[in-house]
């Protein structure tokens, strides 16, 4: 077994080469393979990728042809600035689905901006990517770029349609609390758990009023499930209380939401240095089960996309500081970073965080090869 047999290479072969010139000194496969290896091993830009290639050329030749040596950093940059990002993301999604044939549990969808990918001189905004994270599997399932003149509301349905989410619970923050998004999730064979805030003013008021009225009479007129948890650490005490009910006949907008089956409330009471603060959050869901523990788990699990994906992209991959911005390059590199995260998480032969594993991959070619084979 060698790196040439890594499963992602099967899907890379489906890509159409974006370069129009007839004489191509470096193959599409070689360019993509070197870049994936380099990013796993710590490269954060095209100059880093080219340097990695030159330093590891002998090793790379064990599974790549490289008839004209290692491409220059300009070649890497030009290639990925031209490569169709939609087709590349499709390869990524197909690869993930080939490894994890049936994703179950909570899938958190959230957006992230690569803050320094803007180009003010050309009026180009920083790219904003909506991604899906499987909290149970701990992997990125896919992502899509938000159009410059649009927002997450239009991007989320396209991402949901591209993924196999049957049987999952899809969680989205208040931005995604939209009827069209709920409809798309239901049509995908999944359930939704959507945070409700002021962008759905009437719905938010209705849900809040229902829970306040129920609490006022100690839930005498509402069949409600209850669960609470208590966490202590770092000088902080956090108590979370969850209420979950299918008694939703009082919602004035009930008929407008596809398969709306229940609503939930989470009250978080935080105590730090003797001072307490209380935050109430409200949710609607298409889930029909009566297990408040599952609802509580889904609410908490949603934030793993921040800690396990977005934070890792910023701290371990330095994504927010990356100035790559020409053409489609920033979007394609964002896909490669997520591919690298999945591969590094899949290789459990070494302990440590993603940043430490990237260093290990740079130092130890056997570990890098194992990581490629985990793909």
Topology record:
Layout (H helix, E strand, L loop, with lengths): L7 H5 L15 H13 L5 H10 L1 H4 L12 H10 L2 H15 L6 E8 L14 E7 L4 E7 L6 H11 L6 E4 L6 H9 L3 E6 L4 H16 L7 E10 L2 E10 L16 E11 L2 E11 L6 H10 L2 H12 L13 H18 L7 H10 L1 H9 L2
How would you describe what is shown here?
It is a single chain. Helices cover 41% and strands 20% of the residues. With 375 residues, the protein is an alpha+beta fold. The protein folds into 2 domains: 144 residues, no CATH class; 126 residues, no CATH class. The longest helix is centred in the last third of the chain and has 18 residues. It is elongated.
Keywords for this structure?
14 helices, 2 domains, 375 residues, nine-stranded mixed beta sheet, alpha+beta
Number of helices: 14
% residues in beta strands: 15-25%
Helix-strand makeup class: alpha+beta
Q: Could you give the count of β-strands? A: 9
Count of separate structural domains: 2
Morphology: elongated
* Spatial strand order of the main sheet: 3-2-1-4-5-9-8-7-6
Q: How would you briefly describe this protein structure?
A:
With 375 residues, the protein is of the alpha+beta class. It has helices at 8-12, 28-40, 46-55, 57-60, 73-82, 85-99, 152-162, 179-187, 201-216, 292-301, 304-315, 329-346, 354-363, 365-373, and strands at 106-113, 128-134, 139-145, 169-172, 191-196, 224-233, 236-245, 262-272, 275-285. The two termini are 13 Å apart.
């Amino acid at each position: 077994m060698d790196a040439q047999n890594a499963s992602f290479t099967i899907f890379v072969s489906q890509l159409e080469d974006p370069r129009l010139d007839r004489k191509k000194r470096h193959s599409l496969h070689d360019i993509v393979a070197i870049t994936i290896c380099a990013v796993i091993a710590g490269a954060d830009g095209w100059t880093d990728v080219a340097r990695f290639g030159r330093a590891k050329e002998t090793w790379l030749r064990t599974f790549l042809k490289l008839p004209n040596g290692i491409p220059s950093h300009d070649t890497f940059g030009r290639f990925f600035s031209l490569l169709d990002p939609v087709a590349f993301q499709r390869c990524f999604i197909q690869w993930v689905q080939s490894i994890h044939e049936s994703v179950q549990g909570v899938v958190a969808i959230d957006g992230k901006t690569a803050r320094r990918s803007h180009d003010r001189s050309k009026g180009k905004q920083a790219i904003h990517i909506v991604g899906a994270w499987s909290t149970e599997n701990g992997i990125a399932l896919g992502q899509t770029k938000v159009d410059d003149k649009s927002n997450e509301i239009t991007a989320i349905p396209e991402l949901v349609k591209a993924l196999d989410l049957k049987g999952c619970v899809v969680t989205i923050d208040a931005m995604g609390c939209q009827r069209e998004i709920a409809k798309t999730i239901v049509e995908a064979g999944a359930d939704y758990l959507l945070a409700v805030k002021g962008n759905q003013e009437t719905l938010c008021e209705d849900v809040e009023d229902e829970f306040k009225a129920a609490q006022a009479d100690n839930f005498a007129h509402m069949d409600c499930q209850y669960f609470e948890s208590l966490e202590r650490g770092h000088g902080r005490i956090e108590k979370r209380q969850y209420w979950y009910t299918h008694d939703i006949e009082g919602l004035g907008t009930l008929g407008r939401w596809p398969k709306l089956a229940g609503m939930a409330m989470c009250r978080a009471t935080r105590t730090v240095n003797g001072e307490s603060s209380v935050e109430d959050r409200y949710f609607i869901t298409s889930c029909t089960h009566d297990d408040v523990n599952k609802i509580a788990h889904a609410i908490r699990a949603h934030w793993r996309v921040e800690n396990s994906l977005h934070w890792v992209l910023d701290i371990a991959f330095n994504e927010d500081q990356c100035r790559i911005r020409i053409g489609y390059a920033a979007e394609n590199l964002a896909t490669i970073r997520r591919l690298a995260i999945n591969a590094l998480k899949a290789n459990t032969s070494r302990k440590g965080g993603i940043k430490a594993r990237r260093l290990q991959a740079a130092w130890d070619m056997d570990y890098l090869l194992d990581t490629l084979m985990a793909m």
